[in-house]
């Protein structure tokens, strides 16, 4: 077929990659208008092919970049997680070790030197304290009993008790002895027992005939939350420095509670390590209000 002014196009061969292989067009003779149209179509087909290839290449590049962008943070995250896990393991091990050490220190049995003659009495006191309530800690009752007997034994040596309680008051009154009044026994015992930081037992201050020459004081131990009259009294003065214990409600001296005075004693002890001043109680020409009543 002839082509006007444009000329004659002998052969057009179009090749396209596909899954089916290659295909070609045979030689054709077309006129000028057909040639322009064919050329335009071929150029469009080539441009579309290039565009599809560029698009595929661009998409591959994007996918690779996204994959790498995801891989590196994941690797970094894995490294951070591994480091954090190691830190947590070390922290847990340290916490367990610290808790174990503190627990061992707290679980170490507390004991006091109790003489053989008092050991059976201390065990009996512990049993009576434990029987106050099911909530009383048996170990705490044992420690309190041993502390009480050990403290009273130590005070007995320091006070150097002599004769009868009244005669010993006479010696203190005249400066021959420094301490040993009934309230001093109870104060020193209270300070020692308070250091135990009891949790299932409570300490109370008991008074008999307060403000008179017959006044006597004792420490009353109750289960936590129990009333004063259900407690066990600890008294030292009447037996010349030998500890007596028993139900406060059944004692021949009728004790009443003074809840303010033990707070005063403990606060004074914390501030000045317990004042050692004496108060004249026995053998005074006239009865005066006791100092412990005036100080709170």
Describe it for me?
The chain is α+β, with helices and mostly antiparallel strands. It folds into 2 domains: 108 residues; 179 residues, no CATH class. The chain contains 7 helices and 5 strands; from the N terminus they run αααααβββββαα. A 5-stranded antiparallel β-sheet has the order 4-3-2-1-5. Strand 2 and strand 3 form a beta hairpin. It starts with 31 loop residues before the first helix and ends with a helix. The relative contact order is 0.08.
Largest sheet: 5 strands, antiparallel
Q: How many distinct beta strands?
A: 5
Global Rg: 50 Å
Uncertain segments: 1-30, 100-107, 282-291
What distance lies between the first and last C-alpha atoms, to the nearest angstrom? 134 Å
The helix count comes to 7
- Strands across the major sheet, in which order? 4-3-2-1-5
**Overall tally of structural domains:** 2
Overall mean pLDDT: 76
Series of secondary-structure elements, N-terminal to C-terminal: HHHHHEEEEEHH
Overall shape: it is elongated
Indicate the proportion of strand residues: 5-15%
């Amino acid at each position: 077929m002839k082509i006007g002014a444009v000329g004659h196009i002998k052969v057009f061969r179009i090749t396209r990659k596909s899954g089916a292989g290659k295909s070609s067009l045979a030689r054709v003779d077309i006129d000028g208008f057909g040639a322009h149209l064919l050329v335009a179509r071929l150029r469009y087909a080539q441009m579309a092919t290039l565009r599809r290839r560029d698009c595929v290449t661009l998409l591959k590049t994007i996918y690779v970049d996204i994959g790498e962008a995801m891989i590196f943070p994941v690797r970094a995250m894995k490294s951070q997680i591994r480091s954090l896990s190691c830190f947590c393991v070390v922290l847990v091990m340290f916490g367990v070790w610290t808790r174990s050490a503190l627990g061992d220190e707290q679980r170490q049995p507390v004991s006091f030197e109790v003489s053989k003659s008092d050991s059976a009495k201390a065990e009996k006191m512990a049993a009576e304290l434990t029987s106050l309530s099911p909530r009383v800690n048996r170990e705490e009752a044992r420690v309190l009993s041993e502390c009480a007997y050990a403290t009273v034994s130590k005070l007995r040596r320091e006070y150097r008790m002599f004769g009868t309680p009244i005669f010993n008051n006479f010696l203190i009154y005249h400066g021959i002895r420094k301490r040993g009044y009934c309230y001093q026994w109870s104060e020193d015992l209270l300070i020692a027992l308070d250091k135990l930081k009891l949790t299932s037992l409570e300490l109370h201050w008991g008074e008999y005939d307060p403000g008179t020459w017959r006044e006597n004081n004792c420490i009353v131990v109750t289960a936590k939350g129990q009333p004063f009259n259900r407690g066990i009294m600890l008294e030292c003065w009447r037996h010349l420095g030998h500890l007596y214990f028993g139900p406060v409600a059944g004692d021949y001296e009728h004790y009443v509670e003074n809840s303010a005075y033990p707070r005063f004693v403990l606060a004074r002890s914390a501030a000045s390590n317990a004042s050692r001043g004496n108060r004249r109680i026995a053998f005074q020409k006239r009865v005066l209000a006791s100092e412990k009543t005036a100080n709170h």
